Every structure is written in C-alpha cells, then in structure tokens.
Amino acid sequence: MDSARDEQPVVETDSEIPCGAGFTKCSGRCVLLASNNNHCGACDNVCMGEQTCVAGACKCPAGQELCGARCVTLSSDTANCGMCGRACTSAEVCSMGTCGTTCAGAMCGASCVNLQTDPANCGACGMRCSAPTGGSATCVAGSCVSTCPAGESACSGVCVNRNTDLANCGMCGRVCMLSVVGATPSCTMGTCGGGCPAGQRTCMGACVSTMANDISACGPSCTRCTAPANGTATCNGMTCGFTCNTGFMMSGSSCVAMVSSTCGNGTLDASETCDDGNMAPGDGCSATCMVENIFSPGCNTAPAVRIRTTLGVRQFYRGTTTGASLSNNGSMRCSAEGPDLAIEIGSAVGGNLTVAVVPDGWDAVLLSCENREICSDRSDPTAREFLTFRVGAGTMGRMQIDGYRANSHGPFVLEVSLAP
Length: 420
Hints:
The chain is mostly beta strands. Among the domains are: 47 residues; 146 residues, Jelly Rolls (Sandwich), CATH 2.60.120. It is built from no helices and 33 strands. A five-stranded antiparallel β-sheet has the order 24-26-33-28-31, with no helix packed on it. A five-stranded mixed β-sheet has the order 25-27-32-29-30, with no helix packed on it. It starts with 9 loop residues before the first strand and ends with a strand.
C-alpha cells in the first residue's frame, strides 16, 4: 500500500470534548470526512485498493478506473483493455486501449504503456506517481505532478485547507489546541482560536457554567465554595457562603447542633436572642425569647421598647452595631468613633444597676447618654465593658453602645442586672 495512504487527517481528542469546525468524531477521533481514507464521506467507509478519498468520495488515481476492487489503466491493462473486463489474449498486448500484437509505447513487463503519461510508469517502468490523500497525481511529459483540490494544500501527504484545518492551521503541522478543559478549538482564516461552549465561561483553566450562583465557580474569582461539617455551600453571585443543615445552627464559621432551650430561665441559650428571666412580652424580650425593638439609632432617639429590670435577675440581649449609624461621638474620657446604638432601661425598684457589653471580637465602648464622661473603655480591645451605678425606684436611664474606632463594630451580648 502506498505510504501516503497511511497519513490520515485526524486530531486526537477526549471522548467528551466536541470536534472543531469541519471535523467529525469517528471512533473517538476527529477526522475530515472529505479526505480521510478510512472514513471517506462517512465514518468507517474505507477506500479500497489504490483509491484515495477526494471530496468525500473514493477515487482512483488520475488516468485510472476502478475495475472490481482494483484501479487499472484501461489504455494498457491486458485484463481490462479499453474497458473493464475486456481481456487480451496471451499473444496480445493492450496498446492505447486496443488489443494487438504491437506496442505503440514501451513494454513494462507484460503491459504496453506510455511513459510520458502513465502514472504507474512515469518516465520509466515502475516509476509510480504517488497522490496526496484527498488529491490526485498525473504523469506529464514523463514527470509526476501531484495536485490538491482548489483551496487546499498538501501537508505530510494529505490535502488540507489550511484556513480551517485544526491540525494544519495557517501552516503545515500547526495544531490548534486549547489549555482550557472543555473548550472547543477552531481554525479560522489560518488562525487558531476557540472557546467555551455557549452557556459556559472560563474559570481556572476549565469551562464552567455561567450561572452566577454556581458554587463550583463562584463570582469573578471563580472560587469553589466549601462549607463546614453539617453545612451546605452557597454562592450569592459574588461571594461564597454557607447555610447549616436542619438540626444545626451557625456559630461563627461552624455549624453546631441545636440544643433545646428554655425561654425565661435567665440563661441565654443558642436559639434565643434574649432571656430576661420571664416570658412576658413588652419588656424588651418577647414571650419566645426574641429581642423586641429595644435599640435606637443613638442617644437622641428613644427606642420603641424600654428594658425593664427585675431585681436579682441577670438579663441578656443579643444585638449588633454593624450597619448602625454614626449618631453620637464619645467624650473626653472615652473616644468612640464607630456606629452606635442606644438602649433605655427602667427600674421599678431601687438598687445597683450593672450594664455590660460583651463584644464578639471588636473594641466596644459603653457610655451614659445623660453624662458621656461616665463611660467604660478598657485597654483590652475585646474586653467586656460595664458600668455600675445606683438607681432609685421608678427611674430611667439611657446608655450608648459604641465602637472605639470607625471600623469597630459587630455583634454583642448586652447584660443587664439589678442588685439590692
């Protein structure tokens, strides 16, 4: 078999990756059906004998015709002289397609050939003209001339269109390949290109969904979102997050098991936002231990609900200054530049009132709205800040929860207690 027939225009590819423009996948390989001898015009359609695939059809070399399974030269083939199946006798030769006893050309073995035009004996007996795959070869004036179809060129014995061929894009041997997993390469006007399929984008060297909430490639940074144990990863279109599974609740960056709570027992359980030792609403903590509207934007505005103290009971309230306004500053004694909230505390009986703020990792400041020089700002930036002072029966006081610096804010637990 001619060595040129072993050159097959193919591109190796992963079975999950589509072929580029002009190629068809046959047996896991991207091939050109127009010129592939093993897949000519359709997958697994093999060109027999000396045939080659030209424009999707199996054809014999120029100057030959297919007789049975063989490509023959009708002008000199003694078994097919002038036409398929017309055989000359043993005493005759086939000369110019006619059986006779004389040869008008040259005898090459038992065949009478024209050395100037015979592609099987071009210029000399046995000098065969090899055609490129997808092209043709002729013998002109005793010399072999190979040609490819219009718009194609021979690369390693194969006729290809270098404007579109993925294996020979712009020049022979230039293979269009993409480092992005899942992307489809292309060759357009001799230049390699390609990209992700429709509905996908490039992220970290792979094609991924363009869905903004895709947890495998979240936001512009293409981050793969993860979640702690007992949690589920989320993506809001820009950043990753997580939610806790049923039966678990968020605690910092973890999901912890929910525990049963008893509202009104004076202990701040994980599922509660407040506990003031009772289940009466309207005193700052609801009947289900949820904080009522006890916080106001600052000292200049009274909150909707006033905290009512109970002698001998510690009361707890969760809150956060994140997102609060910058309503009031600090004092000469205590600097306070962060977002602030105010609370109002009423006492039906007299005693020693202690108000404390326990910040969750930020520098809090606690001040009296009536006299801002009465304040608490310990040197430890995450310390528990508290004030204790004597109050009379039926009195009311307002306190400010602030941050030491403008960026000092976050969640906190407010503790209120009244002792004799």
